[in-house]
From TrEMBL:
GO terms for molecular function: serine-type endopeptidase activity. Residues 12-249 form the Peptidase S1 domain. It comes from Ciona savignyi (Pacific transparent sea squirt). InterPro entries: Peptidase_S1_PA, Peptidase_S1_PA_chymotrypsin, Peptidase_S1A, Trypsin_dom, TRYPSIN_HIS, TRYPSIN_SER. The keyword Kinase does not apply. It holds the Pfam family Trypsin. This is Peptidase S1 domain-containing protein. GO terms for biological process: proteolysis. Transmembrane segments: none annotated. It comes from the Eukaryota.
């Protein structure tokens, strides 16, 4: 069942190491260098057995050089549980405005679900039950750096809770930066918690009353890493659900 974890999520505020099975839809993209080295670059979210979502800026220029890893708690090159090559990117990214910072990617193989590999749910077009709202505490996850001056990814996946804020408040914090209707913001005005370099493309998930987690945001950008008045900006997945479902249903390649 999408959005359900076998490990109870009990954390209140984050910046802590995750446990195996807590975020079974979290993926990691590796860039394969000319010498065959595997370099982590971005997160991703599993949404079905054959499809994942990530940020478009993570895939620009990398069509033939990305490998997706699933069920990975720690960055150990000999510890991958599932690795799949990618065969298709679909996106309408605008590099100038940062609009449509979302890529829908088809896998070359099919994921086998288990307790540690489960897709996140998508927001529904038919109901508002899974809508995200201002003030809601949601989770961000990834292996990204934990401070602006860090040079390396974390060796273990981290998670944190962040509150959703309104786009108008987000723009105010960011001193007038335009926030599009296809984006949402989350973070604390005081800073201290948030996404950073390497977390791009990863999920912002929010749970409903039943305990299911829905993919509400794709990590897009922020001006720094947890500084005050510097919320994270996420591609708002609910604005793209129709597009996502149409592409998945009608793609014949």
């Amino acid at each position: 069942e999408c959005g359900k974890t076998v490990v109870p999520i009990t954390k209140i505020v984050g910046g802590v190491q995750a446990s195996a099975g807590e975020w079974p839809w979290q993926g990691l993209f590796l860039k394969i260098s000319a010498l065959g080295a595997r370099i982590p670059i971005c997160g991703a979210t599993l949404i079905s057995q054959k499809w994942v979502l990530t940020a478009a800026h993570c895939t620009v220029g990398y069509r033939s050089y990305l490998l997706l890893i699933l069920f990975l708690l720690r960055l150990q090159l000999d510890g991958f549980k599932t690795s799949l090559r990618l065969i298709l990117f679909i996106t309408g990214y605008n590099v100038t405005s940062l609009e449509n910072d979302i890529s829908l990617i088809k896998l070359a193989g099919q994921v086998v679900y288990n307790d540690y590999v489960i897709p996140s749910c998508l927001p529904s077009l038919e109901t508002t039950r899974a809508d995200v709202y201002v003030g809601q505490l949601c989770f961000i996850t990834g292996w990204g750096i934990t401070a602006s001056m860090d040079l390396f990814f974390c060796r273990t996946i981290y998670d944190a809770t962040v509150p959703v804020i309104s786009n108008s408040e987000c723009a105010q914090w960011l001193q007038g930066q335009d926030i599009l209707s296809t984006q949402l913001c989350a973070g604390y005005q005081a800073g201290g918690v948030g996404s950073c370099q390497g977390d791009s493309g990863g999920p912002l998930v929010c749970s409903d009353n039943s305990g299911k987690f829905y993919l509400q945001g794709v990590t897009s950008w922020r001006a720094g890493c947890g500084e005050p008045d510097n919320p994270g900006v996420y591609t708002k997945v609910s604005e793209y659900v129709g597009w996502i479902e149409d592409r998945m249903a009608n793609f014949t390649g």
